[in-house]
User: Which sequence fits this backbone?
């Protein structure tokens, strides 16, 4: 783990962004506390709360309107997903 002051981080951001790919980097500030620098991977989901709530509400409305997919008996998950994607 690498612990660095906010001043040092500001002065050498590129260095610490690169370092965060392989190490834990903690940035400390007397005024604001400590933060851990974590790289975001392509698998991470980044969505704000309002957008997430809207998507959940839409999903509930779709379910209540009967816009659902049901897996057929004996159907594999791959077959089910393929059928869902082809029906859109």
Assistant:
């Amino acid at each position: 783990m690498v612990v660095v002051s906010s001043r040092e981080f500001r002065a050498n951001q590129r260095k610490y962004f690169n370092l965060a790919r392989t190490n834990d980097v903690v940035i400390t500030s007397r005024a604001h506390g400590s933060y851990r620098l974590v790289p975001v991977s392509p698998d991470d989901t980044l969505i704000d709360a309002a957008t997430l709530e809207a998507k959940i509400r839409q999903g509930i409305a779709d379910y209540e309107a009967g816009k659902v997919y049901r897996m057929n008996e004996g159907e594999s998950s791959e077959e089910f997903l393929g059928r869902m994607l082809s029906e859109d």
Summary: The helical segments are 6-11, 13-20, 49-64, 77-87. The CA atoms of residues 58 and 64 lie 10 Å apart. The mean pLDDT is 93.
